[in-house]
Every structure is written in structure tokens, then in C-alpha cells.
Structures
1.
Amino acid sequence: MSTKTTFKRVALLAVAALTLGGLSAVSASATTGVNDGNVYLWCSTVADGTAKLQNIAGNSSCNGIAGPANSVVVSLDSSAHDADALTGDNAAITAAASFVTVSGSGAYISAASTAVAGSGTNPTTATLATASTGTLTIATPTSGTITVSYYKSTAAGVYSSTAAETLTINVLAAGVSDVFASAVVYGYTGDTTTAASIDATSDAALLATPVTGLATDTAKVVSFKVHQSDANAGALTSASTKAVVATASIGNLYSGNTLAGSYAAVAAKSANDQIFRLVGDGRSGVSTVTISVNGVQTAQYTVTFYSTTIAK
């Protein structure tokens, strides 16, 4: 007997922070060379320690946590580039010194690498020499929004009146750190209990290519990961996670390595990145897999099991 299993997602119900479960199409700019993000001024490190790179989507915004000793690191670049590598327009980017300003929420430059901070105890400006790279550590003492602006030099000691790029730092109250704010579900074609293997990339691949397998086989055909975050996009510690429930109308679910049947639940204040795996139970038909976090439906999938066995 042979069986074919196809997989598709039919709905995603979640808080706004889920951004469609992390399933966003890969931008065509990744191959055409169109500018994806900031080139001269970008987020280097955000509050949860996630590094961001030059000229990638989303590097024009950072999160920070308010506090007298807290800060966010941003990167600067005034060197010349082969524009084809960054923007694909086959025209050289002219190297120029730069002037950087920091404003909002009591922010100031607390440390600099290569860049030269302005005068005073809590400077809010810095300069970067031609063909240089460096970083700025920007203090985030109070909640609110910080704007960092990058101005190119037009002549020695003269800078443009229009910012070439800006960067926004969203400074959140310290009380939101490690407090549940959102959850996201990712899928994976096949069987894995390795959390790092289940992400937006594996989820996109799952949508693009139907899963195949035997409904009566013991092999798991799909794996899911539930990741919980705070308002700073930081991963929750196990002591702060909320309860997770997964159900399947057809098939059996494993919670981690434990067979749980059609209903699998993980208690609140358990480990983050909970993994569920689906295996056929011998029946054919459409199975609806629903995953809820903290009592709210976060994602819903359908898995259709086909069998070549003739019913009658």
C-alpha cells in the first residue's frame, strides 16, 4: 500500500507580532541586487543579542530596554563600495566622511569605535572619517523612540542638510523583558526535535513542496515549533512561557518525544521552543492541526492523508 500526504497551511490567527507566522516571501531584491536595507547606518546589535548586517531588510530599526546602564549598538560605514554588491546599480558609491546625530528619549553616545564622539559628558553627535567603519553605543536611559541620522560630507567640514539614512531605536520599559507578548509557529517537512532546524525557511519550504509519507508508517511527516517572545523580541526563559496546546483531527501528535495522541499540551512555565510532531494513524482524510498559545489560537494547518486502499 502506498500513501501520499500533502500539506498546506489554510489560516493563521495570531497577534500582530506573528507577521504571518514568519512566512514571508523571499524578496526578489536578494537576487536582483535592489537595496534591502540601510547601507551606511544600521542596527548592529539589538536588545536580545540578535546581530543585524549591512544592507539587509529590517536593519533600520532596533529594540532597546530602558535603564540607566542599558544601550544599543549601531554600525557605521563611510567606505567606498562596489554598488553592484549592495544595490545592483553598477555605479560606484562615493566614499565620504559622515556626521551622525542622536536624538530622543534622553539618548546619547556612551562609547564609539573608530567614530569620534562629539564633546561633552553625554555627546549626541559623532563623526566618521572617509573610508572608515565603526560603531556607536547609544545609551537608552528612558522609554520612547530614539532617532539616529546619518549625513554625508559634501566638502571638507561640510555635511548635507538631508540625512542619507536614519535608524529608529524603540526603547521599551524594562518591565516587558521576559514577559510574554507573542508566539509564532514554524513547520518542518519531516521529523526533527532540533529546534534550530525549524524556522521560517523550513516553514516556507513546507508550503512549497507537499509532504509524502505512509499513513500507517511510524515516521513523523511534519514537525512544528512554538517560539514565545517578549515585547523586545527576546526569547522567553522557561520560567516565563505560557501553556501550549496542539490538536489534530486525524493522526497522532508527539510532544517532543512523547506520544500524546490527537491532543498534546505543554504546561505554562515549561521550556521555550516546544516541538510537536505529527504521524499518521492509518486513517485517510483531511486532518486539521491547531496550535494555541496562552489560550489563543496561534496557527492552523491542514494535512491531507491519501490512501490507495479501496474502501469497497
2.
Amino acid sequence: AHRASLYYGNRFDSNITPIIPKEPSHLAAMWAFICDPDYSESLLNLSPGLFTTNSAFLKVPFDLERWQKVAEQKYPHGLPKPFSSDPTQWLFNGHPKGSNNPLQVAVARLVGYQWPRQTGSSFPDCPALEPDGLETLSDKDGIVCIPPVRGEAGAADRLLNLLATAYGNEWSSDVLGRLLSDADYAGKSLEAWLRDGFFQQHCELFHQRPFVWHIWDGLRDGFSALVNYHKLDRKNLETLIYTYLGDWITRCEAQDKDSGLTEDGEKTTAARNLKRKLELILAGESPYDIFVRWKPLHQQPIGWEPDINDGVRLNIRPFVSVPDVKAKGAGILRVKPKIKWEKDRGKEPQRPKEDFPWFWGWDGKTTDFAGVGTEPKGERHNDCHDTLATKQKARSKAGGT
């Protein structure tokens, strides 16, 4: 079935067919007609293949007078302004109340994420938004630990405060119960949902491209942190390791001492193990590196140097590449996102072998692959690895630091 949306003159590709009325006054009637299920069925009859041909869209019989009457009944005050309560859409206003997924939106706001219209972007009939009052409850560095750490309240208490502020006078324990029930956590606590349910649901909601990462040490009551990936630069990763996790380790050591243990207890051991894995990501030595196939070798990240424009798929790889703390293939994430780093379809244009050796016949396993042959194959590999020494040499040769 086709999907219809109002067209505002943007660029489009062959998967989109703009239909522009010759008479602007006919727009509402055409919109009512095109949104009707019978229109989709007529399109399938006219063009039954996998892709509907552009010509088929204008071959469906259109009774202008009939659809003008339908439009008058459906849109007595004109076409409605664009609106979406779906947090996966750019038009979304970023407020938990009234959204399709209030808990997910509230967590995103808690770790400092904002939707485009909250950061100054505007769209036709959708202006940029003013602050909504939740900004003061957002975490500045985008790191919210589930247990209380470094003098900060635990994530559940902070989230509860944000929800109460968002709902105002409508907030109650019944509302919280309904939100948890809608998230399949009826009768359970907000902290239980954060620890066990949030991240998997977050991955599913945002099509396996999570932007709030749940990093943990593998223990149900151990160290866990919700991290805004958009803010997770090298400095904030160091803050996560040496400030938040460091404080947790110090507290666990004190508890071990108070308990009379002569060696690290379970929580201390798990936390130290997580610290080592995070330090592997920080250093970025192969195979815990970031690889971006469209960047030349001298521009490949050295250590944790993420560029959010490269996308979640590439930047999250080190976090699932380190040895698992619990779930198979998830590394230090609460669950494994359904992401693969197989080569993509299509071919790349010819690129210099020295700068893009992976386009020259990579065998799928060699680290520091230098390229082979006299002609590039152009295959779009996404799981290559280069050592720090190789990347640093290429960067130095190109005049970088």
C-alpha cells in the first residue's frame, strides 16, 4: 500500500511521486481521495508489480465533485496542520505527555536528547518550538546512572520527577501504572523497566538504531548507565569511566572492606571488568575500533573519536565488539541491537588504493589490509579493522596529528 503525505517542494527520488493540483482549491479534495483505502487498492490493480509506476497514480478515476463533498465534511476548517505524536518523526514536539511512547520520550529528555523542532529546526506549518520546562531536568553530560552514583539520584527517581513535571496536575500513581502497563511492565517498578525493559524497547522503537545506550556490567543490581550517544564524545566517555564508574568501584571496594572480604567482591569484580572494556573502546585498538568506509585511511577515527553523522551502525560497533558481560553478542550493552556490519549492496566509484584499501578486494578478515590487484572491486565493506599504528601512520603522512 502507498503512503501519502503533503508535499512541500522538497527534493525527492524515484520512490516518491508528487501529485500537484492545477487548481490549489482542489487540494483538500485530492488529499481526501488519495488518503482513501480504495485509492491504494485501485493502484494495485493498475500496477500490480513490486513498484507502482508513476503513471498509475493519475490513472485512478477521480470524481472531483464527490471528493469535494468528502473534504468539506472531513476538513471544514481546511486541511489540518502537520502533527505527529510519534517520536520517530521529525515533526514530533519532544514532550512525553501526549506522545505514543511517553516513557521512551521521558528517558530521552532525561539524558538531554531533543527533537529537531526543539533545537531550532522548522518545517512548513511546523515552526521551531520554545523551551517546554523540562530542559532543567535534563542531564548536562548525557550520562544517567541507574543506581545513585557520584551524589546524583538514581535514574528511576530522576525519571519519576521528570514525568511528574511533564504531566503536571494530571500526574498520579495511576498514570505511572498505566504507562508501565503500556510498556508491558504492569505491576513492576520504574527501575525494573529501566534495568530490564527500556533498551530492548528503545531499539525496537527506533528501528535498531538506538541513540540512548544502556551500558552495564552484567549484574542485575550492578553498575548501569543510560548514555545519550549524541553527547558521548571522548571527554564524556572518560567521565563515564573514571568519574561515574570510578565512584561506583570506590564504593564497592569500601563495602567489600566492611564485609571483611580480602579480595574483590562480585560487584567490584564486575565493575572493574566493565572499566577494562570501556578503556579498550577509549583506546580503539583493533578490533575495538570505529571503521567508516567512506572516509580515507588518514581520516579514520583513532580511539574513541565518533562522528554522529557517520551513524549509530558504525559508532556502536566497539560496544558490542568487546567481550560480552552477559548477553551473547551484546558486548557491554544490555541487549544486542539487531545490527549487522555485512557489506552493503552496490559498488563504490574508483578510489585511491592508498586511501581506501578496503575497496581493493578485501578478504573479509585481514587487519591492516593494504589492497590487492590493479583494479578496485568497490565492494562496500563495513567491518574492516586497522591498527592504531596504521591509522596514525596514515594520518601523519597526510599532515594530521
